Protein backbone atom coordinates (compact mmCIF):
# COMPACT_ATOMS: atom_id res chain seq x y z
CA UNK A 1 0.00 0.00 0.00
CA UNK A 2 1.24 3.44 -0.88
CA UNK A 3 1.66 5.43 2.27
CA UNK A 4 2.57 8.99 3.12
CA UNK A 5 3.78 10.22 6.47
CA UNK A 6 4.30 13.88 7.28
CA UNK A 7 6.31 14.78 10.35
CA UNK A 8 6.29 18.46 11.21
CA UNK A 9 8.66 20.28 13.53
CA UNK A 10 6.14 23.09 14.00
CA UNK A 11 4.08 23.30 17.17
CA UNK A 12 2.74 26.83 17.33
CA UNK A 13 -0.06 27.37 19.87
CA UNK A 14 -3.55 27.54 18.26
CA UNK A 15 -2.03 26.53 14.90
CA UNK A 16 -0.86 22.95 15.48
CA UNK A 17 -1.73 20.11 15.42
CA UNK A 18 -4.93 21.55 13.93
CA UNK A 19 -5.88 25.17 13.49
CA UNK A 20 -7.97 26.63 16.30
CA UNK A 21 -7.36 30.35 16.13
CA UNK A 22 -11.10 31.07 16.32
CA UNK A 23 -12.89 29.76 19.40
CA UNK A 24 -16.49 30.34 20.48
CA UNK A 25 -16.54 34.07 19.79
CA UNK A 26 -16.74 33.99 16.00
CA UNK A 27 -19.45 31.30 15.63
CA UNK A 28 -21.54 33.02 18.33
CA UNK A 29 -21.17 36.31 16.51
CA UNK A 30 -22.05 34.72 13.14
CA UNK A 31 -25.23 33.33 14.72
CA UNK A 32 -26.23 36.61 16.37
CA UNK A 33 -25.44 38.58 13.22
CA UNK A 34 -27.67 36.28 11.17
CA UNK A 35 -30.44 36.44 13.77
CA UNK A 36 -30.34 40.24 13.91
CA UNK A 37 -30.35 40.39 10.10
CA UNK A 38 -33.35 38.05 9.99
CA UNK A 39 -35.44 40.08 12.45
CA UNK A 40 -34.59 43.42 10.81
CA UNK A 41 -35.28 42.05 7.34
CA UNK A 42 -38.84 41.02 8.21
CA UNK A 43 -39.47 44.23 10.17
CA UNK A 44 -38.43 46.38 7.21
CA UNK A 45 -40.18 44.15 4.67
CA UNK A 46 -43.56 44.21 6.39
CA UNK A 47 -43.24 47.86 7.20
CA UNK A 48 -42.79 48.54 3.49
CA UNK A 49 -45.74 46.29 2.68
CA UNK A 50 -47.88 48.37 5.07
CA UNK A 51 -48.58 45.52 7.51
CA UNK A 52 -47.57 47.38 10.64
CA UNK A 53 -51.00 46.91 12.23
CA UNK A 54 -51.49 43.23 11.28
CA UNK A 55 -47.98 42.14 12.17
CA UNK A 56 -47.02 44.14 15.27
CA UNK A 57 -44.41 41.66 16.52
CA UNK A 58 -42.51 41.52 13.26
CA UNK A 59 -42.46 45.25 12.62
CA UNK A 60 -42.10 46.53 16.18
CA UNK A 61 -41.81 44.16 19.13
CA UNK A 62 -39.12 41.79 17.88
CA UNK A 63 -36.88 44.62 16.75
CA UNK A 64 -36.35 45.68 20.35
CA UNK A 65 -34.19 42.58 20.70
CA UNK A 66 -31.92 43.55 17.83
CA UNK A 67 -29.73 46.22 19.49
CA UNK A 68 -29.16 43.81 22.39
CA UNK A 69 -28.33 40.94 20.02
CA UNK A 70 -25.94 43.14 18.04
CA UNK A 71 -24.27 44.42 21.21
CA UNK A 72 -23.61 40.90 22.44
CA UNK A 73 -22.37 39.95 18.96
CA UNK A 74 -20.06 42.94 18.80
CA UNK A 75 -18.84 42.08 22.29
CA UNK A 76 -17.97 38.57 21.10
CA UNK A 77 -16.12 40.01 18.10
CA UNK A 78 -14.22 42.34 20.38
CA UNK A 79 -13.23 39.48 22.69
CA UNK A 80 -11.87 37.58 19.69
CA UNK A 81 -9.35 40.31 18.96
CA UNK A 82 -5.89 39.63 20.35
CA UNK A 83 -5.03 43.32 20.31
CA UNK A 84 -8.25 44.71 21.75
CA UNK A 85 -7.13 48.28 22.32
CA UNK A 86 -6.39 48.61 18.59
CA UNK A 87 -9.93 47.68 17.50
CA UNK A 88 -10.55 51.23 16.23
CA UNK A 89 -8.09 50.56 13.42
CA UNK A 90 -10.96 48.74 11.70
CA UNK A 91 -12.53 52.14 11.17
CA UNK A 92 -9.56 54.02 9.83
CA UNK A 93 -9.76 52.27 6.47
CA UNK A 94 -12.18 50.54 4.12
CA UNK A 95 -10.77 47.51 2.38
CA UNK A 96 -13.11 46.23 -0.31
CA UNK A 97 -11.25 42.93 -0.70
CA UNK A 98 -11.55 42.06 2.98
CA UNK A 99 -14.93 40.67 4.11
CA UNK A 100 -13.89 41.36 7.71
CA UNK A 101 -13.56 45.06 6.83
CA UNK A 102 -16.93 45.55 5.21
CA UNK A 103 -18.46 43.38 7.93
CA UNK A 104 -17.13 45.83 10.50
CA UNK A 105 -18.54 48.75 8.51
CA UNK A 106 -21.96 47.22 7.93
CA UNK A 107 -22.23 46.63 11.70
CA UNK A 108 -21.31 50.27 12.20
CA UNK A 109 -24.27 51.17 9.96
CA UNK A 110 -26.87 48.64 11.08
CA UNK A 111 -26.42 48.96 14.85
CA UNK A 112 -27.43 52.65 15.06
CA UNK A 113 -30.06 52.00 12.38
CA UNK A 114 -31.71 49.32 14.49
CA UNK A 115 -31.51 51.56 17.57
CA UNK A 116 -33.22 54.39 15.72
CA UNK A 117 -35.91 51.98 14.50
CA UNK A 118 -36.61 50.88 18.09
CA UNK A 119 -36.60 54.47 19.25
CA UNK A 120 -39.35 55.31 16.78
CA UNK A 121 -41.57 52.68 18.44
CA UNK A 122 -40.52 53.41 21.99
CA UNK A 123 -43.82 55.11 22.87
CA UNK A 124 -45.65 51.91 21.88
CA UNK A 125 -43.87 50.25 24.73
CA UNK A 126 -44.24 53.04 27.28
CA UNK A 127 -47.10 55.30 26.08
CA UNK A 128 -46.57 58.35 28.29
CA UNK A 129 -42.85 58.56 27.84
CA UNK A 130 -41.15 61.92 27.58
CA UNK A 131 -37.61 62.14 26.29
CA UNK A 132 -35.16 63.79 28.66
CA UNK A 133 -32.68 64.37 25.87
CA UNK A 134 -33.89 66.60 23.06
CA UNK A 135 -32.12 64.93 20.16
CA UNK A 136 -33.68 61.51 20.90
CA UNK A 137 -37.05 63.05 20.20
CA UNK A 138 -35.61 64.49 17.04
CA UNK A 139 -34.43 61.02 15.92
CA UNK A 140 -37.87 59.60 16.73
CA UNK A 141 -39.57 62.19 14.54
CA UNK A 142 -36.99 61.78 11.82
CA UNK A 143 -37.51 57.99 11.56
CA UNK A 144 -41.29 58.37 11.63
CA UNK A 145 -41.09 60.95 8.86
CA UNK A 146 -38.73 58.98 6.61
CA UNK A 147 -39.94 55.50 7.57
CA UNK A 148 -39.86 54.24 3.98
CA UNK A 149 -36.29 55.29 3.24
CA UNK A 150 -35.28 53.85 6.60
CA UNK A 151 -36.93 50.53 5.85
CA UNK A 152 -35.22 50.31 2.46
CA UNK A 153 -31.82 51.02 3.98
CA UNK A 154 -32.50 48.43 6.66
CA UNK A 155 -33.65 45.75 4.23
CA UNK A 156 -30.54 46.15 2.09
CA UNK A 157 -28.09 46.35 4.97
CA UNK A 158 -29.70 43.37 6.74
CA UNK A 159 -29.28 41.23 3.61
CA UNK A 160 -25.63 42.32 3.40
CA UNK A 161 -25.15 41.54 7.10
CA UNK A 162 -26.79 38.12 6.76
CA UNK A 163 -24.90 37.09 3.66
CA UNK A 164 -21.63 38.50 4.98
CA UNK A 165 -21.65 36.06 7.90
CA UNK A 166 -21.23 33.31 5.29
CA UNK A 167 -18.90 35.18 2.97
CA UNK A 168 -16.55 35.89 5.85
CA UNK A 169 -15.85 32.15 5.84
CA UNK A 170 -16.22 31.39 2.13
CA UNK A 171 -13.58 33.96 1.18
CA UNK A 172 -10.82 31.82 2.70
CA UNK A 173 -9.52 29.67 -0.13
CA UNK A 174 -7.09 28.00 2.27
CA UNK A 175 -9.98 26.22 4.05
CA UNK A 176 -11.66 23.83 1.62
CA UNK A 177 -14.80 23.38 3.74
CA UNK A 178 -15.55 27.09 3.69
CA UNK A 179 -14.39 27.89 0.20
CA UNK A 180 -17.73 27.50 -1.53
CA UNK A 181 -19.94 30.31 -2.77
CA UNK A 182 -23.11 28.61 -1.50
CA UNK A 183 -22.06 29.38 2.09
CA UNK A 184 -23.15 33.05 1.84
CA UNK A 185 -26.72 32.25 0.71
CA UNK A 186 -26.90 29.31 3.14
CA UNK A 187 -25.97 31.48 6.13
CA UNK A 188 -28.36 34.20 4.96
CA UNK A 189 -31.29 31.78 4.71
CA UNK A 190 -30.38 30.23 8.05
CA UNK A 191 -30.25 33.70 9.62
CA UNK A 192 -33.64 34.64 8.13
CA UNK A 193 -35.04 31.35 9.44
CA UNK A 194 -33.82 32.02 13.00
CA UNK A 195 -35.27 35.54 12.71
CA UNK A 196 -38.65 34.19 11.58
CA UNK A 197 -38.62 31.63 14.40
CA UNK A 198 -37.98 34.39 16.96
CA UNK A 199 -40.85 36.49 15.63
CA UNK A 200 -43.11 33.42 15.64
CA UNK A 201 -42.12 32.71 19.23
CA UNK A 202 -42.77 36.25 20.46
CA UNK A 203 -46.00 36.78 18.59
CA UNK A 204 -49.36 36.66 20.38
CA UNK A 205 -51.44 37.07 17.21
CA UNK A 206 -52.69 33.88 15.57
CA UNK A 207 -52.44 35.26 12.03
CA UNK A 208 -48.91 36.49 12.53
CA UNK A 209 -47.80 33.22 14.05
CA UNK A 210 -49.12 31.10 11.23
CA UNK A 211 -47.65 33.48 8.63
CA UNK A 212 -44.18 33.21 10.17
CA UNK A 213 -44.60 29.50 10.62
CA UNK A 214 -45.19 29.25 6.85
CA UNK A 215 -42.29 31.57 6.06
CA UNK A 216 -40.06 29.48 8.29
CA UNK A 217 -41.15 26.28 6.56
CA UNK A 218 -40.23 27.74 3.20
CA UNK A 219 -36.84 28.88 4.54
CA UNK A 220 -36.15 25.46 6.05
CA UNK A 221 -36.91 23.91 2.66
CA UNK A 222 -34.44 26.24 0.95
CA UNK A 223 -31.86 25.56 3.64
CA UNK A 224 -32.10 21.79 3.20
CA UNK A 225 -31.76 22.26 -0.56
CA UNK A 226 -28.66 24.43 -0.05
CA UNK A 227 -27.12 21.86 2.30
CA UNK A 228 -27.61 19.08 -0.26
CA UNK A 229 -26.22 21.42 -2.88
CA UNK A 230 -23.21 22.15 -0.64
CA UNK A 231 -22.29 18.49 -0.34
CA UNK A 232 -22.98 17.77 -4.02
CA UNK A 233 -20.54 20.57 -4.79
CA UNK A 234 -17.90 19.13 -2.47
CA UNK A 235 -18.19 15.62 -3.87
CA UNK A 236 -17.76 16.92 -7.42
CA UNK A 237 -14.77 19.07 -6.47
CA UNK A 238 -11.06 18.54 -5.85
CA UNK A 239 -9.36 16.18 -3.38
CA UNK A 240 -9.16 18.80 -0.61
CA UNK A 241 -12.90 19.50 -0.72
CA UNK A 242 -13.83 15.83 -0.97
CA UNK A 243 -11.72 15.25 2.13
CA UNK A 244 -13.37 18.22 3.87
CA UNK A 245 -16.82 16.77 3.12
CA UNK A 246 -15.72 13.46 4.63
CA UNK A 247 -15.68 15.20 8.02
CA UNK A 248 -19.47 15.21 7.69
CA UNK A 249 -19.91 11.97 5.78
CA UNK A 250 -18.51 9.44 8.21
CA UNK A 251 -16.02 11.70 9.99
CA UNK A 252 -16.14 13.31 13.42
CA UNK A 253 -18.92 15.79 12.58
CA UNK A 254 -21.36 13.31 11.03
CA UNK A 255 -23.64 12.89 14.05
CA UNK A 256 -23.54 16.49 15.35
CA UNK A 257 -24.31 17.78 11.88
CA UNK A 258 -26.90 15.38 10.47
CA UNK A 259 -28.41 14.56 13.85
CA UNK A 260 -28.06 17.87 15.67
CA UNK A 261 -28.37 20.46 12.91
CA UNK A 262 -30.32 18.83 10.08
CA UNK A 263 -32.64 16.50 12.03
CA UNK A 264 -33.21 18.36 15.32
CA UNK A 265 -32.63 21.86 13.98
CA UNK A 266 -34.50 21.66 10.66
CA UNK A 267 -36.54 18.51 10.05
CA UNK A 268 -38.16 18.13 13.49
CA UNK A 269 -39.19 21.82 13.81
CA UNK A 270 -40.53 21.66 10.25
CA UNK A 271 -42.69 18.64 11.18
CA UNK A 272 -43.88 20.41 14.36
CA UNK A 273 -44.79 23.53 12.36
CA UNK A 274 -46.75 21.49 9.81
CA UNK A 275 -48.62 19.76 12.65
CA UNK A 276 -49.39 23.14 14.22
CA UNK A 277 -50.69 24.50 10.90
CA UNK A 278 -52.87 21.41 10.55
CA UNK A 279 -54.57 22.29 13.82
CA UNK A 280 -52.68 20.23 16.38
CA UNK A 281 -51.74 22.20 19.47
CA UNK A 282 -48.00 22.43 19.87
CA UNK A 283 -46.32 25.00 22.14
CA UNK A 284 -44.71 27.46 19.74
CA UNK A 285 -41.55 27.57 21.84
CA UNK A 286 -40.63 24.00 20.81
CA UNK A 287 -39.98 24.54 17.10
CA UNK A 288 -38.60 28.04 17.75
CA UNK A 289 -36.01 26.85 20.29
CA UNK A 290 -35.01 23.92 18.07
CA UNK A 291 -34.43 26.24 15.12
CA UNK A 292 -32.44 28.73 17.19
CA UNK A 293 -30.26 26.10 18.83
CA UNK A 294 -29.84 24.32 15.48
CA UNK A 295 -28.66 27.56 13.90
CA UNK A 296 -26.17 28.18 16.70
CA UNK A 297 -24.80 24.62 16.58
CA UNK A 298 -24.56 24.83 12.77
CA UNK A 299 -22.22 27.82 13.03
CA UNK A 300 -20.09 26.25 15.74
CA UNK A 301 -19.67 23.10 13.66
CA UNK A 302 -18.87 24.98 10.45
CA UNK A 303 -16.25 27.19 12.13
CA UNK A 304 -14.58 24.31 13.95
CA UNK A 305 -14.61 21.80 11.08
CA UNK A 306 -13.53 24.45 8.59
CA UNK A 307 -10.38 25.14 10.56
CA UNK A 308 -9.53 21.43 10.50
CA UNK A 309 -9.99 21.17 6.73
CA UNK A 310 -6.86 22.08 4.81
CA UNK A 311 -4.74 21.49 1.75
CA UNK A 312 -2.21 18.73 2.15
CA UNK A 313 1.02 19.08 0.23
CA UNK B 1 12.96 42.96 -8.39
CA UNK B 2 11.27 39.98 -6.77
CA UNK B 3 12.77 38.26 -3.73
CA UNK B 4 12.51 34.48 -3.70
CA UNK B 5 13.98 31.59 -1.78
CA UNK B 6 15.09 28.26 -3.11
CA UNK B 7 15.70 25.14 -1.07
CA UNK B 8 17.47 22.07 -2.37
CA UNK B 9 15.61 19.14 -0.81
CA UNK B 10 18.38 16.81 -2.02
CA UNK B 11 20.95 18.59 0.12
CA UNK B 12 18.85 19.31 3.22
CA UNK B 13 19.60 17.00 6.15
CA UNK B 14 16.82 18.30 8.40
CA UNK B 15 19.14 19.62 11.16
CA UNK B 16 16.74 22.50 12.05
CA UNK B 17 19.59 24.99 12.25
CA UNK B 18 17.47 27.36 10.17
CA UNK B 19 14.74 27.18 12.81
CA UNK B 20 17.07 28.02 15.70
CA UNK B 21 18.84 30.78 13.75
CA UNK B 22 15.49 32.41 13.01
CA UNK B 23 14.28 32.15 16.60
CA UNK B 24 17.47 33.87 17.76
CA UNK B 25 17.64 36.50 15.06
CA UNK B 26 14.00 37.53 15.29
CA UNK B 27 13.50 37.00 19.04
CA UNK B 28 10.67 34.57 18.38
CA UNK B 29 8.91 33.81 21.70
CA UNK B 30 9.68 30.44 23.27
CA UNK B 31 7.38 27.71 22.00
CA UNK B 32 6.81 29.44 18.65
CA UNK B 33 8.58 29.30 15.31
CA UNK B 34 8.54 31.24 12.06
CA UNK B 35 10.15 28.42 10.06
CA UNK B 36 10.08 24.69 10.56
CA UNK B 37 11.25 21.42 9.00
CA UNK B 38 8.90 18.89 7.45
CA UNK B 39 9.88 15.28 6.96
CA UNK B 40 7.72 13.86 4.20
CA UNK B 41 8.04 10.09 3.72
CA UNK B 42 6.17 8.33 0.93
CA UNK B 43 6.10 5.14 -1.10
CA UNK B 44 5.56 1.42 -0.63
CA UNK B 45 8.06 -0.50 1.44
CA UNK B 46 10.86 -1.13 0.50
CA UNK B 47 10.62 1.59 -2.14
CA UNK B 48 10.29 4.57 0.15
CA UNK B 49 11.69 8.06 -0.13
CA UNK B 50 12.01 10.92 2.29
CA UNK B 51 11.87 14.57 1.39
CA UNK B 52 13.08 17.16 3.88
CA UNK B 53 11.75 20.66 3.54
CA UNK B 54 12.49 23.81 5.47
CA UNK B 55 9.21 25.70 5.33
CA UNK B 56 8.11 29.26 6.15
CA UNK B 57 5.92 32.05 4.82
CA UNK B 58 5.95 31.80 1.02
CA UNK B 59 5.72 35.59 0.48
CA UNK B 60 3.08 34.81 -2.12
CA UNK B 61 2.57 37.02 -5.13
CA UNK B 62 -1.22 36.65 -4.71
CA UNK B 63 -1.37 36.66 -0.93
CA UNK B 64 -4.72 35.75 0.64
CA UNK B 65 -3.49 37.23 3.93
CA UNK B 66 -2.98 40.68 2.42
CA UNK B 67 -6.36 40.43 0.71
CA UNK B 68 -8.36 39.54 3.81
CA UNK B 69 -6.68 41.89 6.31
CA UNK B 70 -9.34 44.40 7.48
CA UNK B 71 -6.91 47.10 8.58
CA UNK B 72 -4.18 46.84 5.95
CA UNK B 73 -1.66 45.63 8.56
CA UNK B 74 -0.65 42.82 6.19
CA UNK B 75 0.85 44.47 3.16
CA UNK B 76 3.37 44.10 0.36
CA UNK B 77 6.76 45.74 0.50
CA UNK B 78 9.50 46.30 -2.04
CA UNK B 79 10.64 43.10 -3.67
CA UNK B 80 7.29 41.43 -3.04
CA UNK B 81 7.85 40.91 0.69
CA UNK B 82 4.64 40.23 2.61
CA UNK B 83 4.92 42.08 5.90
CA UNK B 84 2.84 42.75 9.02
CA UNK B 85 2.62 46.26 10.44
CA UNK B 86 2.48 45.50 14.17
CA UNK B 87 1.01 48.88 14.99
CA UNK B 88 -1.96 48.30 12.70
CA UNK B 89 -2.66 44.65 13.58
CA UNK B 90 -5.73 44.08 15.76
CA UNK B 91 -5.19 40.32 16.02
CA UNK B 92 -8.50 39.32 14.43
CA UNK B 93 -7.00 36.11 13.05
CA UNK B 94 -8.38 36.45 9.51
CA UNK B 95 -4.92 36.19 7.95
CA UNK B 96 -4.11 33.12 10.05
CA UNK B 97 -7.22 31.46 8.60
CA UNK B 98 -6.38 32.58 5.08
CA UNK B 99 -2.90 31.02 4.88
CA UNK B 100 -2.89 27.56 3.30
CA UNK B 101 0.61 27.00 4.73
CA UNK B 102 -0.39 27.91 8.30
CA UNK B 103 2.73 30.08 8.30
CA UNK B 104 1.32 32.71 10.67
CA UNK B 105 0.85 32.63 14.39
CA UNK B 106 -0.60 34.88 17.01
CA UNK B 107 2.24 36.49 18.96
CA UNK B 108 1.71 36.63 22.76
CA UNK B 109 2.06 40.42 22.54
CA UNK B 110 -1.17 40.66 20.54
CA UNK B 111 -0.21 40.87 16.89
CA UNK B 112 0.20 38.29 14.15
CA UNK B 113 3.75 37.33 13.31
CA UNK B 114 5.52 35.37 10.60
CA UNK B 115 8.69 35.13 8.51
CA UNK B 116 9.89 38.49 7.19
CA UNK B 117 12.72 37.09 5.04
CA UNK B 118 14.82 38.96 7.67
CA UNK B 119 14.15 42.26 5.89
CA UNK B 120 16.35 44.06 8.46
CA UNK B 121 19.26 41.95 7.21
CA UNK B 122 18.33 42.42 3.55
CA UNK B 123 18.67 46.18 4.08
CA UNK B 124 22.28 45.58 5.11
CA UNK B 125 22.89 43.44 2.05
CA UNK B 126 22.93 40.20 4.04
CA UNK B 127 20.99 36.99 3.46
CA UNK B 128 18.15 35.92 5.76
CA UNK B 129 19.57 34.29 8.89
CA UNK B 130 18.22 30.81 8.01
CA UNK B 131 20.04 30.92 4.66
CA UNK B 132 23.28 32.18 6.13
CA UNK B 133 23.56 29.48 8.81
CA UNK B 134 22.57 26.44 6.70
CA UNK B 135 25.46 23.96 7.20
CA UNK B 136 24.82 22.14 3.90
CA UNK B 137 24.22 25.39 1.96
CA UNK B 138 20.97 23.96 0.65
CA UNK B 139 19.20 27.34 0.78
CA UNK B 140 19.50 30.14 -1.74
CA UNK B 141 18.07 33.63 -1.60
CA UNK B 142 17.94 36.17 -4.36
CA UNK B 143 16.16 38.11 -7.06
CA UNK B 144 14.07 35.84 -9.27
CA UNK B 145 13.71 38.60 -11.87
CA UNK B 146 17.49 38.66 -12.37
CA UNK B 147 18.26 35.90 -14.84
CA UNK B 148 21.92 35.87 -13.84
CA UNK B 149 21.24 35.18 -10.15
CA UNK B 150 22.27 31.79 -8.81
CA UNK B 151 18.65 31.18 -7.87
CA UNK B 152 17.40 31.76 -11.42
CA UNK B 153 20.12 29.57 -12.86
CA UNK B 154 19.22 26.69 -10.55
CA UNK B 155 15.55 27.01 -11.44
CA UNK B 156 16.51 26.87 -15.11
CA UNK B 157 18.64 23.75 -14.80
CA UNK B 158 16.92 21.67 -12.14
CA UNK B 159 13.41 20.31 -11.56
CA UNK B 160 11.50 22.17 -8.90
CA UNK B 161 8.12 22.59 -7.28
CA UNK B 162 6.23 25.01 -5.10
CA UNK B 163 3.87 24.01 -2.28
CA UNK B 164 0.11 23.72 -2.91
CA UNK B 165 0.12 25.70 -6.20
CA UNK B 166 -3.55 24.68 -6.64
CA UNK B 167 -4.59 27.23 -4.00
CA UNK B 168 -3.53 29.95 -6.42
CA UNK B 169 -1.34 32.00 -4.09
CA UNK B 170 1.74 31.99 -6.36
CA UNK B 171 4.19 31.10 -3.57
CA UNK B 172 7.77 32.37 -3.85
CA UNK B 173 9.66 29.59 -2.10
CA UNK B 174 10.89 27.02 -4.58
CA UNK B 175 11.97 23.50 -3.76
CA UNK B 176 14.47 21.66 -5.93
CA UNK B 177 13.41 18.02 -6.18
TrEMBL record, chain A:
Residues passing through the membrane, by range: 26-50, 62-82, 102-122, 149-170, 182-203, 215-235, 255-272, 284-303
Topology of the protein relative to the lipid bilayer: Multi-pass membrane protein
GO annotation, cellular component aspect: plasma membrane
Keywords for this protein: Cell membrane, Membrane, Transmembrane, Transmembrane helix
Predominant subcellular localization, coarse grouping: membrane
Source superkingdom: Bacteria
Pfam families for this protein: NrfD
Subcellular location: Cell membrane
Keyword Cell membrane: yes
Similarity comment text for this entry: Belongs to the NrfD family.
UniProt protein name: Nitrite reductase
TrEMBL record, chain B:
Keyword Iron: yes
Superkingdom as given in the UniProt entry: Bacteria
Keywords assigned: 4Fe-4S, Iron, Iron-sulfur, Metal-binding
InterPro entries in UniProt: 4Fe4S_Fe-S-bd, 4Fe4S_Fe_S_CS, ET_IronSulfur_Cluster-Binding
Key word Metal-binding present: yes
Signal peptide: none
Molecular function as annotated in GO: 4 iron, 4 sulfur cluster binding; metal ion binding
Domain called 4Fe-4S ferredoxin-type: residue spans: 3-32, 48-79, 80-109
Record protein name field: 4Fe-4S dicluster domain-containing protein
Organism whose genome encodes this protein: Ancylomarina salipaludis
